[in-house]
Amino acid sequence: MSSLFAKILKPSGWISSWLIGSLFLALAAAGYFGYLQPLKEFLERPEFLFTIGDYEVSVYMILKAIVILVLIFWVTAALSGFGEKRINALTSFGASSKALLIKVFQSILYFVALLLALDIMGIDLTALTVLGGAVGIGIGFGLQNITSNFISGIILLSEKSIEKDDLVELDGGVSGFVRQTHSRYTLVETFDGKEVMIPNEDFITNRVTNWTYSNTRGRIEVRTGVSYKSDIRRAHELILEAAREHPDCLEDPAPVCFLEEFADSSVNFVMYFWVGDVTIGRLKPKSDVMYAIWDKFHANNIEIPFPQRDVHLIGAENAAE
């Protein structure tokens, strides 16, 4: 039954749309010009009347309300479909922004249609003020999170700070690609294939790292330690050489290497290099460069040490004396 009603309100084919629309338009026109007056008098006879509270309702009033509702919501569905096509044709918005904008447009359109239908049917809208106040209290308490997420989604849409296929990282440790943006949540696909539905409010109230907000470049860090017996200046050159030879390494900004500290067992270097597209991953370029550093160190007799400790037994030295 619900599917039949949905097909009447929003038929799929254009032929059926115009047939259903023409039928209800004809009924509305017939009622307006008085051709349905005999039917009205028949359906408003006392035997077809019943009371709801203090109101008398006839079968004709019910049928009239159904026709008006179907007609108004059919027109609304047609306008909604037209608006959806126009929004999808916009090139200045991403796919996720378009989806959210469509939902906002449809929500406003159907709300206005409902008010118009109630007004045409003669229902006093001022009588709904008490109900509106109750709904407002419900939104303020029970629907607070839903309303907050909906408004947050509108803010994300207007700011364009989160778009489809952006690489994001949240404070809670969730990292991945934005796949969809809805009125209540944003779908993020993590690197291990999990699809996490994150409330839109989290993107507004919490700190979010968007790796691809203005560009797709990303910096990679590589830390290396060499032995105190090794030529540290040669090691510095080899580390930079390994980065420059990688095909994903950018020339601008160029890779840089710094001597970071003289540690207990090694002289430690830190090297930074940039890749052009961080969305394809940072682990593989980092792994490739580290393999290259390993090979170059071995070829040039530069040792990568492991932690060592010299233990002196004082009691053993006294016994030897």
TrEMBL record:
<dbReference type="InterPro" id="IPR049142">
    <property type="entry name" value="MS_channel_1st"/>
</dbReference>
<keyword id="KW-1133">Transmembrane helix</keyword>
<keyword id="KW-0472">Membrane</keyword>
<dbReference type="InterPro" id="IPR006685">
    <property type="entry name" value="MscS_channel_2nd"/>
</dbReference>
<dbReference type="Pfam" id="PF00924">
    <property type="entry name" value="MS_channel_2nd"/>
</dbReference>
<keyword id="KW-0812">Transmembrane</keyword>
<feature type="domain" description="Mechanosensitive ion channel transmembrane helices 2/3">
    <location>
        <begin position="108"/>
        <end position="144"/>
    </location>
</feature>
<dbReference type="InterPro" id="IPR011066">
    <property type="entry name" value="MscS_channel_C_sf"/>
</dbReference>
<dbReference type="GO" id="GO:0005886">
    <property type="term" value="C:plasma membrane"/>
</dbReference>
<dbReference type="InterPro" id="IPR049278">
    <property type="entry name" value="MS_channel_C"/>
</dbReference>
<feature type="transmembrane region" description="Helical">
    <location>
        <begin position="57"/>
        <end position="79"/>
    </location>
</feature>
<feature type="transmembrane region" description="Helical">
    <location>
        <begin position="100"/>
        <end position="118"/>
    </location>
</feature>
<dbReference type="Pfam" id="PF21082">
    <property type="entry name" value="MS_channel_3rd"/>
</dbReference>
<dbReference type="InterPro" id="IPR011014">
    <property type="entry name" value="MscS_channel_TM-2"/>
</dbReference>
<feature type="domain" description="Mechanosensitive ion channel MscS C-terminal">
    <location>
        <begin position="220"/>
        <end position="304"/>
    </location>
</feature>
<protein>
    <submittedName>
        <fullName>Mechanosensitive ion channel</fullName>
    </submittedName>
</protein>
<comment type="similarity">
    <text>Belongs to the MscS (TC 1.A.23) family.</text>
</comment>
<feature type="transmembrane region" description="Helical">
    <location>
        <begin position="12"/>
        <end position="37"/>
    </location>
</feature>
<keyword id="KW-1003">Cell membrane</keyword>
<dbReference type="InterPro" id="IPR010920">
    <property type="entry name" value="LSM_dom_sf"/>
</dbReference>
<dbReference type="Pfam" id="PF21088">
    <property type="entry name" value="MS_channel_1st"/>
</dbReference>
<dbReference type="GO" id="GO:0008381">
    <property type="term" value="F:mechanosensitive monoatomic ion channel activity"/>
</dbReference>
<dbReference type="InterPro" id="IPR052702">
    <property type="entry name" value="MscS-like_channel"/>
</dbReference>
<feature type="transmembrane region" description="Helical">
    <location>
        <begin position="130"/>
        <end position="157"/>
    </location>
</feature>
<dbReference type="InterPro" id="IPR023408">
    <property type="entry name" value="MscS_beta-dom_sf"/>
</dbReference>
<feature type="domain" description="Mechanosensitive ion channel MscS">
    <location>
        <begin position="145"/>
        <end position="212"/>
    </location>
</feature>
